[in-house]
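pipeline/complex-builder :: batch 7 item 3
reading input block
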Amino acid sequence: MSDVAIVGVGMHPFGRHDISGMEQGAFAARAALADAGAQWSDVQYAFGGSAAAGNADTLVSTLGLTGVPFINVSNGCATGGSALISAYNAIKAGAADVVMVIGFDKHPRGAFDPQPSDYGIGDWYGQTGMMLTTQFFGMKIQRYMHEFGITRETLAKVAAKAFHNGSLNPNAWRRAPMTEEQILESTMIANPLTQYMFCSPGEGGVGLVLANTDVASKFTDKPVLLRSAVLRSRPFGSFEVFNPSLADQRGNSPSVAAAKAAFEQAGVGPDEVDVVQVQDTESGAEVMHLAECGFIEDGGQEDLIRSGATQLDGSLPVNTDGGCLANGEPIGASGLRQVYESVVQLRRQGGARQVKNEVKTAFTHVYGAPGISACTVLSV
Amino acid sequence: MTVLTETVDTTARAIEAGLFTWPAEQPRLIGSRCKACGLVTFPSTSGCSRCTADDTEQYLLATTGELWTWTVQGFRPKSPPYEGPVDFTPYLVGYVALPGEVKVETLIVGVGLDDVKIGMPMELVIVPFHSSVTDDALVTFAFQPVSAARPAVFTTAANPSNTGA
Ligand SMILES: [Zn+2]
């Protein structure tokens, strides 16, 4: 069976902009094509999506009416990851040799106002004030801290690292570093999480050009192998957002299954990974996802993070571009941003944020409502 | 934080029918139990998320349990869907583990930020819900620490003895 390579990456900077989400998607797609030295007419299949900025397939009127099959993907926070998996499978299946993936979005300040009926929940849940993702994040890390001895100082360290990395990333939204004290003393949003421990809805776009490894050399002499791309929904007993009740019996998060399958499919283990991007919707999520994805045992994060291991010069750099905390979360683009950053790190093109150690293998993890997770393993 | 001093009007309407028994001497949350594997869920569902069977029966949940986790809602949620008072006061939410049954997500009353603790014994209470969209008297469910004073229950003349201690 064919192997899959990423031969071009492009990004429209994250943040807030005066142009539409769709235009940010077109910008990213063109940047990815330019990076690959490819033309839009080389693309044989395309997958794309946004949660709130329009139908991705209408980008053909901007990029060119080549007749390319273009499939819109809509899968909540895993929209980008799902588009990538679709592209990966298309190449694996032999349906195309050159495939474009585009994710973009544009959310206004304070966006994301989910309604209970969209999640199969009674109206009372929203009426009485329980339909908020922030509550879930607060309650999940609160329980985790109680069980495994994680401290609020560690949550602040995660956010401080994100803003530091963001300050070194010209495409990031939040470019100002912040001290742990500033983070701890900012407004309490959902105990134990403060304002600067949370990411915000934002804007941005990412494009990726994928190719069958047989033809990858046409575009680049430095292909990055996409070793696996896996999506999982939640298993029984997991603790997810928007659940009026949880089972008495506790089960794993969908991230556990997605990461395990991604590593198995790639034939590598977590101990072989040199750089990690995990979903950090808030700083507690980064802490918990490191364990759910198999990089550390539950509770080990306290020492790991205090030791500086997750920083750019550490042994396991995490969220090297500033993650969601410094980049915001344009839903359709967010998961693809992690893949873009992995490619940048594998090519050693990170500039000021390039990790110190050698990078041969990278890992990405995206997580979203109502309990989905998508992971990839990449290598050079 | 909300501390219960309010009177509960038993003629008030439940925020949603089928969520808890009301009016009742001892209100209970209404869940369901899978006839095949015994899984308890809340609110009631017709299918089972554990064994995938589709035959369930009504099951009234225990009224006491332990606080499993909690957080504070520090800002007024967006309307819609939120219909609480326009004049906002932060409130606590959490999951209460009902042993051997299910963990229920709930508003938490009768305790403040300084005293709320994972593991504290909790009990079900029915509390007034001050709606910003209707003048109707509404009630919803919440949990409070077992040691907290019970809300006074105002009843119609038919049942004057049903007063909280
Ligand atoms: Zn069952």
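note: The longest strand of chain A covers residues 4-15.
queue -> next item
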